[in-house]
Amino acid sequence: MRFIMKRYIFAILYSIIFGLSLHAFHFKLNHPIAEDISRLMPVKMKAIKAEDDEGALKKIVLEAKENDDPISIAGMQHSQGGQTLYPNGILLDMKNHNEILDLDVSEKRITVQSGATWADVQEYINPYGLALKVSQSQNIFTIGGSLSVNVHGRDIRHHALIETVESFRLLDAKGQILTVSRKENSELFSAVIGGYGLFGIILDVTLHLTDDELYQIKTKSLHYEEYTSYFKKEVLQNSEVKMHLARISVAPGSYLDEMYVTDYYEANDQTKLPAYNALKRETIVAVPKFFLGLSRYNDWGKEQFWKIQESYTAKLNGTMISRNNVMRSDSAFMDYSNPSKTEVLQEYFVPVDQFADYIDDLRNVLTDEKDFNLLNITIRYVEQNDESLLSYAKDDMFALVMLINQGTDDKGKQHAEKVIRSMIDVALTHDGSYYLPYYGYPTKAQFNEAYPHAVEFFHLKKKYDHDDRFMNLFYKEYHP
């Protein structure tokens, strides 16, 4: 009798535990946690949905309207400040919506669904001798995501992505599909590009392409005070230079002082392009990954990483590369996994003529921040463009992309917030701005100063999406 009673009690306990476990499993299944690549902002969602069909996407929007569910939209989720997340909302993962719809080779124009990546596009157009006008130097991102943050890249003749867009189709909050261009629904053209998914779902986009070209790489070391004059005379005024980037040292011995530049000159003999236009695959990452790892932990490591970067760049001098390969991913060595730390990006835009003074003031701010782990600064150029309401390029700007290693706990976030707000103040003092896809450290006052057309942007948001169907944490943080 006692044995039977024990078995009975065990069965009851097992049933209770199993029931609780099953309930927890279903709760997690029905309330998944989503986070961006920084891992600083995990958010509990009502559901995550991935569709490849236009009709299914429209159904999701109409059901969300009926149930009063907010929708946030995600591509590769590299935006780091909640731009693709909203609590208890529907997270729409667009990566399956990724077909190439049309390529007009003679007109150099392509139409592609928003979930396709730049790598997908490059694979498709490279055999036709065509290349992208604008993209990031990494090609892992989705077209829709890149459009939503209005990316820029290394090309100094084509600047923000918005310049290359002919039109796109938008699934709005009412479930309508609108064609958007500079002539049709033009208000939305300026709001959706660089609008962080707040106006609807970008279904597909038509982009202007250019010819693939053969470039010769030329590199040079210089002092930061020489950079502006060098760039204006030797790069911007030289029609043979098509692309450009620079790096400035964060190593203690040459901190914000030494620089090197990499310029991409149009090769004299374009008939040699076929020997270089096979799309490259990243293979050798162990050495830079090792030295970047060292730089995370001490000043000696930062010195060694800077020397490796300089040495590698010098070896590139005189080598040839195709345009498409300049726009291929070269950052697998940056992959990083640490349970207590993460790496985030910040980007500041500073008028070309104020660069040296800006660097001096930035150095003054950062010199006292010994625990602020700045790993790298890459510099690009973007020409003034105010087509997007949330344009970062109020003038002809240098864009400084900073890689920062920080803690994931509250202490780490609070320290990063303090320093980053100070860095934003330095940029604003020099008539600059900052890029919005990153963690929401900036204050509302800083946001409004950097983005004077934000009032108009938020007004249009209410006009076209009165019920706030499309939501994210960026909007929650910064709208009036």
Chart the SSEs and their pairings.
Layout: H1 2-30, E1 33-34, E2 43-44, E3 47-50, H2 54-67, E4 71-74, E5 90-93, E6 100-104, E7 109-113, H3 118-125, E8 130-132, H4 143-149, E9 165-171, E10 177-181, H5 186-192, E11 201-211, E12 214-223, H6 227-236, E13 241-248, E14 258-266, H7 286-295, H8 299-316, E15 320-322, H9 323-326, E16 341-351, H10 355-367, E17 373-382, E18 397-407, H11 410-429, E19 433-434, H12 444-450, H13 454-464, H14 473-478
Helix pairs in contact: 7-8, 10-11
Précis, in short:
The protein has 480 residues and is an alpha+beta fold.
Description:
- The chain has a domain at 214-438: Alpha-Beta Plaits, CATH 3.30.70.
- Residues 13-29 have low confidence and may be disordered.
- Helix 10 (355-367) packs antiparallel against helix 11.
- The protein is globular and about 60 Å long.
- The longest helix is centred in the first third of the chain and has 29 residues, at 2-30.
- It starts with a helix and ends with a helix.
- It has an eight-stranded antiparallel beta sheet, with helices on both faces. Strands 6, 7, 8, 9, 10 and 11 form a six-stranded antiparallel beta sheet that branches.
- It has helices at 2-30, 54-67, 118-125, 143-149, 186-192, 227-236, 286-295, 299-316, 323-326, 355-367, 410-429, 444-450, 454-464, 473-478, and strands at residues 33-34, 43-44, 47-50, 71-74, 90-93, 100-104, 109-113, 130-132, 165-171, 177-181, 201-211, 214-223, 241-248, 258-266, 320-322, 341-351, 373-382, 397-407, 433-434.
- With 480 residues, it is α+β, with helices and mostly antiparallel strands.
- Strand 6 (100-104) and strand 7 form a beta hairpin.
- It has 14 helices and 19 strands.
